[in-house]
Design goal:
There is one protein chain. By secondary structure, the protein is an alpha+beta fold. It has 4 domains: 83 residues, Uridine Diphospho-n-acetylenolpyruvylglucosamine Reductase, domain 2, CATH 3.30.43.10; 119 residues, Uridine Diphospho-n-acetylenolpyruvylglucosamine Reductase, domain 3; 124 residues, 2-Layer Sandwich (Alpha-Beta Plaits), CATH 3.30.70.2190; 83 residues, Alpha-Beta Plaits, CATH 3.30.70.2740. The protein is 35% helix and 20% strand. It is built from 16 helices and 18 strands. The strands form 5 sheets. Strands 5-6-10-8-9 form a 5-stranded antiparallel beta sheet. A 4-stranded mixed beta sheet has the order 1-2-4-3. Strands 13-14-12-15 form a 4-stranded antiparallel beta sheet, sandwiched between helices. Strand 8 and strand 9 form a beta hairpin. Helix 1 packs antiparallel against helix 2, helix 7 crosses helix 10 and helix 13 packs antiparallel against helix 14. The chain is globular. The model has no long low-confidence stretch (mean pLDDT 97). The protein binds flavin-adenine dinucleotide (FAD).
């Protein structure tokens, strides 16, 4: 009996198929990685995932778990491997308003969870541009971030419990709803961010939050990045921590954005170097009320804070969204970043994290050093500035791969000298293996290899990702 026949027996003939190189399951989102999987299998539930993993172990076949396939680090590359797509595990098993939790399967698309919890006046606060495709299992496996991390934390912070199929095929049930549980090693946190190298996440218990009843959104030009940090702190002080997005778009990004979207509206009277989209959200009743001039009180609050900031010279110009259409327009400008970034090749992507008060120094240093390396190099950069996460992508002039590596090394060098990390929210996958090799603490690397060998002795679970050879 061939492996395919054995897979038919587990999941049914309709859910096992071959895939072309470059097809839906044969390339990553950026198409930087194009591959031909051995086959694609789409189990219906945790038991079927477990049976498929046991079979792969018997047959010594490499496995690559796949969610929405929107990852940006090549983590779903599956040349000759069995792709296990989690897309049929798409049930939202429970939403419990009283304890503000959702129990979801790994294949639930982020947008579907947003819609489902909205009916209960709750939010799952994680959000980013790929929310229409990214799945909860993939987000947990990459510990995704996004634009609301400064208020609600990353995916790790929003997860109470997990169910995982281990490389042996055993099902590890950690589906706890507890906020406190110190019963030994926290294996949930070992699995979150492991990018499918230690097991397959099949279900999770997630934390929800009360739905803000009012938002106030603005785009602001600040004098400098240091002034932007002071603005963030003022906003947090004046609103009791209601800032839920603080997103940076330098002039170099907006230039490219307007080339791709020429009909988009210019917000300011002139171009500024430092542009920030800020959003406040609140559940406080008084701030959600409408004032006599038809504006929500929170919008008034934001306007008055920005006026004060203007008077002290911290901000140069500001536009506050006056309706939902204007709010959406501001978000579209920011969320087009992935599309703008991949619109030109070659592309060198750097997803780095910095201490908040070092971001300005990073920008002052990095541009000159890269220009010296590759004259004419163009940054196409945006940032989740509120949590120190910079997407410092560049379009090099040179086609030389060795120079592209040098660009990454140079960015890393600056980041590490400022106490930052070479990987903020996109993970390691394949793209960042050289950085892991160079930069990760060697003792930590030994421990990671020991954990991998203990859980996956045959090295079949997403091999060649996260841990350098
Ligand atoms: C337009 C766009 C905007 C983005 N913006 C952001 C952003 O702001 N912040 C951010 O953090 N990320 C962002 N991303 C990337 C982000 O990592 C992914 O969108 C998301 O987290 C991955 O989910 P996915 O279901 O697509 O996972 P996939 O791409 O399918 O998989 C990602 C990794 O997880 C593994 N995996 C998938 N499912 C499972 C599972 N159930 N169990 C174990 N392993 C699994 C895969 O093997 C792979 O290694 C963006 C991507 C795009 C395309």
């Amino acid at each position: 009996m061939t492996v395919l026949n054995k897979l038919y027996d587990i999941v049914g003939e309709n859910h096992v198929f071959e895939e072309q190189e470059g097809g839906k399951y044969g390339a990553d989102w950026t198409h930087s990685y194009v591959f031909k999987p051995l086959a694609v299998v789409r189990p219906a539930d945790t038991l079927e995932v477990s049976e498929v993993v046991k079979l792969a172990n018997e047959e010594k076949i490499a496995i690559v778990p796949m969610g929405g396939n929107t990852g940006l680090a090549g983590g779903t590359h599956a040349q000759g491997a069995l792709v296990i797509s989690l897309e049929r595990l798409n049930a939202i098993r429970e939403i419990r308003k009283s304890s503000q939790i959702a129990v979801v399967e790994a294949g639930v698309v982020l947008d579907s969870l947003h819609t489902a919890v909205d009916d209960h006046d709750l939010i799952f606060p994680m959000t980013f541009g790929a929310r229409g495709s990214a799945m909860l299992g993939g987000m947990l496996s990459t510990n995704a971030g996004g634009s609301s991390v400064l208020r609600y934390g990353n995916t790790r912070d929003l997860c109470l419990g997990l169910e995982v199929v281990l490389p042996s095929g055993d099902i590890m049930n950690l589906m706890s709803e507890l906020h406190k549980d110190n019963s030994g090693y926290d294996l949930r946190h070992l699995m979150i961010g492991a990018e499918g190298t230690l097991g397959i996440i099949t279900a999770a218990v997630l934390k929800l939050q009360p739905k803000p009843n009012a938002y106030a959104t603005a785009t602001v030009a600040t004098r400098s990045l240091d002034e932007a940090l002071l603005l963030l702190n003022s906003l947090q002080m004046a609103t009791g921590g209601a800032v839920q997005a603080f997103e940076y778009m330098p002039d170099t990004y907006l230039e490219k954005y307007f080339k791709i979207f020429p009909t988009a509206r210019q917000l300011f009277s002139r171009n500024y170097q430092h542009n920030i989209m800020v959003e406040l959200g609140t559940t406080v009743k008084e701030l959600c009320e409408m004032s006599p001039d038809g504006k929500i009180q929170l919008v008034h609050r934001l306007e008055s804070i920005l006026e004060q900031e203007f008077e002290v010279g911290r901000i140069l110009e500001a536009v506050v969204a006056q309706n939902l259409a204007q709010r959406n327009e501001m978000w579209e400008r920011r969320e087009a970043a992935a599309e703008v970034t991949v619109s030109q090749k070659p592309l060198v992507n750097n997803d780095v994290a910095l201490p908040l008060d070092k971001v300005s120094e990073f920008f002052q240093t990095v541009g000159d050093q890269l220009e010296a390396l590759d004259p004419g190099i163009e940054p196409v950069c945006v940032a989740h500035l509120g949590d120190g996460n910079i997407h410092y992508a560049v379009w090099p002039k040179s086609q030389n791969p060795a120079l592209h590596d040098k660009i990454v090394e140079t960015v890393e060098e600056i980041v590490l000298s400022l106490g930052g990390s070479f990987s903020a929210e996109h993970g390691i996958g394949i793209t960042k293996l050289p950085s892991m090799e160079r930069r990760k603490n060697p003792v930590a690397m030994v421990v990671m290899r020991q954990i991998k060998a203990a859980l996956d002795p045959n090295n079949l679970m997403n091999p060649g990702k996260v841990i350098p050879k």
